[in-house]
Amino acid sequence: MKTLLAIFVILCLIGLVSGGREDRAKPRPVAPTPPMIYIVAHEYPVPQVDISFLKNFHGTPGHGLESSGFEQWRIKAGQAGERALARVLAVARWAHDVDVFFSLAVPGFPDIDVDCAVLSGQDLWLLDAKRYRVCDNAAYTCYGGDGKTLYLRRLDADGHPTGEILGEHHISRSTAMARQGFKERFPALTIHSATLLTPSADGMYPAIALDAVDATGARFSDADSYVFRMKVSGEANSPYVVRALEALCK
């Protein structure tokens, strides 16, 4: 009897020890680390360029917002952003000729439009222009959210976003739908897309964190840096594609 009792006690002790080891071995949840800054706030005086005389520019920046039904302040802010993007594109030093289109209807999605499209050979870039406010010591980030909201958060001394939210913007799925619509309408083209922050009225870009991405998973960028990185081909644009895109301009 004593022997059985001793064995029982030993087995219980083994169970406690092994259970404790299992508990210690379980991975503990780790709080997400705030992202570092991808683009620091910087100055970029918006070039004052008249784009009306440029033969390779089609449509009118911001024209699609006139019939959007948005509040007037949103329409004006959107148009200012699209016009700023147009001026950035106008002064870009393209290695080859490109065609630029503004306020395009999206094939298959009548309720949305594309702010700007750039055609170079077999490549078509769909660009969504955003003009968001600039705050000192703050950056736009998706940190702490569900991936559907872009936050303007205060930065700490190390340059990481904090819990202090200064503003927020819903991340629209229109860019993802636009990619789909244009892929179906122009299957021979390679479709690229990006959401670009444009300079403020006083020529400043806000800071952007590494995790700030749009609905397609592409990082938010400042307009002039993105345009500078665009790799355009030397291939001539198809007159048929140019006419088809021009017909989509509102």
Write up this protein:
- The strands form 3 sheets. The protein has a 6-stranded mixed β-sheet, with helices on both faces.
- The chain has one domain.
- With 250 residues, the protein is an alpha/beta fold.
- It has helices spanning 2-25, 72-90, 174-185, 223-229, 239-248, and strands at residues 37-39, 42-43, 57-58, 99-106, 109-120, 123-130, 138-141, 149-155, 161-170, 190-197, 204-205, 207-209, 221-222.
- It contains 5 helices and 13 strands.
- Mean pLDDT is 81; it is low at 4-11 and 13-31.
- It starts with a helix and ends with a helix.
How does the SSE layout of this entry go?
Elements: H1 2-25, E1 37-39, E2 42-43, E3 57-58, H2 72-90, E4 99-106, E5 109-120, E6 123-130, E7 138-141, E8 149-155, E9 161-170, H3 174-185, E10 190-197, E11 204-205, E12 207-209, E13 221-222, H4 223-229, H5 239-248
Parallel strand pairs: 3-4, 6-10, 7-12, 10-13
Antiparallel strand pairs: 1-12, 2-11, 4-5, 5-6, 7-8, 8-9
